[in-house]
Every structure is written in C-alpha cells, then in structure tokens.
Amino acid sequence: TLISQGRDILTLISQGGEILTLISQGGEILTLISQGGEILTLISQEVEILAVKLISQGGEMLTFIYHGGEILTVISRGGEILTLISQVGEVLTLISQGRDILILISQRGMLCTYAKLQNRKQVKYNPNMNCT
C-alpha cells in the first residue's frame, strides 16, 4: 500500500504478517518496523533533526540515534547501562533507570537527552537540555 499525503509519502509493506512502514516528513525518512510483534518507532522533530531507530535482536535492543547529522550508536549491555559511541569519537553514556527512563550524558556536557520508553511502543526525546 502506498499512501500520498501532500509531500509526505507513506509506504506500508506486509511481509509474512510483519508490517514495514516508511514515512517521509519534510525530506526526512522515518522507518517503523514491526518484528516479532514488537513495535519499533522512528521519530523526527521539527527544530532539530532527531531520529531514533530501535532494533530488537534476540531480545536485546540496539538503538541508533541521529542528532544534528551526527550518527550515534547505543550498545545494550544487560539492559541497564548503555554505551553510546559517536562517529566523531565522542563517547557518551546512556543510563537506564527502572528500564523506563534513559538519560543520555555527554562527556563534554553539551548534549543531554532524556528518553522515556512507554511499553516499548513509543519513544519520546527532549533534545537540547542542559546537563549542567
């Protein structure tokens, strides 16, 4: 199924009962992928491009964050402490508290992002928050 709404193009593809969704918003391509019944969400915000892609592999969640054109990779370790590695070499730490609230802390203290997981179906990010 291909749905066009103005400039936005939404693509729904069903493969073996799994639904793959491609969403275009203002030139930003978002991907919503359902794997094994889990709903993964990719979100883009207007002010700053902030896209999140959640991929579940064998019960372990891997997160890719695109922030300001910078690609960050989050590696899950036991579901408690996540290490975020930037392509520019900066290392950030993602701390999970109660498996609900994730706090992203930059070593330079310039980036602080709060993420809240809601039933593993939706992720909300608030960028540009002061770590200090």
Description:
- This protein is an all-beta fold and 132 residues long.
- The chain has strands at residues 2-5, 8-15, 18-25, 28-35, 38-39, 50-57, 60-67, 70-77, 81-86, 91-97, 101-106, 112-118, 122-126.
- The protein has an 8-stranded antiparallel beta sheet with strand order 6-7-8-9-10-11-12-13, with no helix packed on it.
The low-confidence runs, each spanning 5 or more residues with pLDDT under 50, are 21-63, 65-71, 76-81, 96-103, 105-132
**Main β-sheet description:** 8 strands, antiparallel
Helix content: under 10%
Distance between the termini: 47 Å
- Round the mean pLDDT to the nearest integer and report it: 45
The assigned structural class equals mainly beta
Helices and strands, in N-to-C order? EEEEEEEEEEEEE
- Strand proportion, as a percent range, falls in over 45%
Give the total of beta strands.
13
Q: What is the number of independent domains? A: 1
Report Rg: 15 Å
Strand order of the biggest β-sheet? 6-7-8-9-10-11-12-13
Overall, the morphology is globular
Total of helices: 0
